[in-house]
């Protein structure tokens, strides 16, 4: 690898697997890739120094006012349970998860950290949850080009209690900038309509290691990302009635 360049000492297999799931392939193919990736996923993200689960859990815990042990959380696109592990360390105990990949859910189940896990392809089908059921909803790592569309935001809000929190992350690397702009426009529209209030948008320079030179932030060998925290407004919008 080029000094300070990419590949950044990452094994080629890791680079290839990461590139494959971000390549914007059709949904069935992408879910199949995630199923196949489940076995290597945690080693790969460790190699990537993927910090989003830690950063998201820390941000949510910072915003969350109440005793955490009783709070009901939904971990959307939960993968193998990396976010659950971080939330658990911060005192959250009532965790449910959904993911579009059966292979990932199987790994998540083996952690023993979730009360309930369900298969759900976000953007295609509604979340398997009642309205206003959760104190907080997290979507870490799945809001990106060729992954979960930004049109899912109202569905995330639907299952969140009034006054509840939503913790979302996205990447700021070049190939995700168009998606990020769309996402931020959608976040802003919901805020203008009085659906939720932005509490935090934290830019993080070292989000994870870049898998190519083009994606790296100013040659650092890393890509950057953002953690957003929103709070659902406690009073429903009268116009919606």
TrEMBL record:
Residues 74-164 form the Methyltransferase domain. GO terms for molecular function: S-adenosylmethionine-dependent methyltransferase activity. CDD domains: AdoMet_MTases. It comes from the Eukaryota. InterPro entries: Methyltransf_25 (IPR041698), SAM-dependent_MTases_sf (IPR029063). This is MET27 protein. It comes from Nesospiza acunhae. The gene is Mettl27.
């Amino acid at each position: 690898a080029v000094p300070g360049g990419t590949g950044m000492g990452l094994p080629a297999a890791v680079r290839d697997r990461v590139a494959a799931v971000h390549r914007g392939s059709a949904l069935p193919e992408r879910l199949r890739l995630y199923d196949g990736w489940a076995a290597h996923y945690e080693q790969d993200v460790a190699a990537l120094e993927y910090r989003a689960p830690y950063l998201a859990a820390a941000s949510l815990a910072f915003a969350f006012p109440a005793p955490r042990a009783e709070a009901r959380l939904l971990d959307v696109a939960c993968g193998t349970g990396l976010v659950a592990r971080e939330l658990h360390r911060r005192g959250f105990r009532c965790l449910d998860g959904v993911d579009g990949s059966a292979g990932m859910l199987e790994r998540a189940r083996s952690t023993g950290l979730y009360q309930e896990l369900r298969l759900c392809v976000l953007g295609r089908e509604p979340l398997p949850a009642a309205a206003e059921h959760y104190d907080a909803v997290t979507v870490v790592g799945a809001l990106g080009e060729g992954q979960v569309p930004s049109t899912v935001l109202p569905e995330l809000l639907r299952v969140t209690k009034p006054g509840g929190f939503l913790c979302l992350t996205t990447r700021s690397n070049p190939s995700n900038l168009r998606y990020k702009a769309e996402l931020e426009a959608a976040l802003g529209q919901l805020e203008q309509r009085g659906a939720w209030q932005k509490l935090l948008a934290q830019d993080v320079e070292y989000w994870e290691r870049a898998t190519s030179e083009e994606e790296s932030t100013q040659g650092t060998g890393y890509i950057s990302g953002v953690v957003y925290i929103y709070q659902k407004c406690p009073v429903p919008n009268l116009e919606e009635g």
